[in-house]
Amino acid sequence: MRKLTLGFAVIAVTVLAGPAQAADLSVGGYCPVAQNARLLSIQSNASLTDEVIRLMDEAVAVADSPQWINSGRPAFVWASEAKVACGKAYGYLQSEYRDGDYLNKCECFHARMVRYMY
């Protein structure tokens, strides 16, 4: 009976809380630290690729660093997210495709990483 009551409580809280909101990477949303995404404004694919690689390399360095792995700050988490997002953006760039979502995530997660480092 206790499980049944707990189940109804979870459902009631979920219904009363309203609809869940998706993470929004737009300005003022989930990623206010990456306002006016700079990556999307880079015209040259070669320059864009170089910048994505730079952000990815920095994220990999932080994600592999014992200093940040063992830190109480979430820099490691955002570095891990940035290296994946930048890696995917880089992969798309290899086929001459600019994936706006992954470019935004790359820049956003990198900015969050840096924010928590200092």
Describe the structure in your own words:
- The protein has 118 residues and is mainly α.
- Residues 1-28 have low confidence and may be disordered.
- The termini are far apart.
- The radius of gyration is 19 Å and the shape is elongated.
- It is built from 5 helices and no strands.
- It has one domain (22-117).
- It is 65% helix and 0% strand.
- Helix 2 packs across helix 5 and helix 4 (75-94) packs antiparallel against helix 5 (100-117).
Which structural class fits the helix and strand makeup?
mainly alpha
Low-confidence stretches: 1-28
Overall geometry: elongated
- Give the DSSP E fraction (strand runs of 2 or more residues): under 5%
Largest β sheet strand count, sense and barrel closure:
none
Terminal CA distance: 51 Å
Helix content: 55-70%
